[in-house]
Design brief:
Length: about 80
């Protein structure tokens, strides 16, 4: 899932995919703004068939956090 998420991330910010790790922070390391992040979440919902909770995603700061959250949502199906 990391590789798929890297592709999505690179659609929003100019960063080399190989520089994105599980510990990469969306804002501090990757340069996301709130609009980019919300738009990315929309793509995640569509790609993985999940519904994200806006309040829950506010606590997602790293790529690893996002993957863990998506996997948790997918497990609920």
């Amino acid at each position: 899932m990391l590789e798929e998420l890297k592709e999505l991330i690179c659609n929003y910010v100019e960063v080399e995919p190989e520089k994105i790790t599980l510990k990469s922070k969306f804002v501090d390391d990757l340069g996301f703004n709130s609009f980019d992040f919300i738009t990315l979440l929309g793509e995640v919902e569509e790609k993985y068939g999940v519904n994200v909770n806006e309040e829950e995603v506010l606590g997602l700061t790293t790529v690893g956090d996002a993957i863990e959250y998506i996997e948790k949502l997918r497990g609920k199906k």
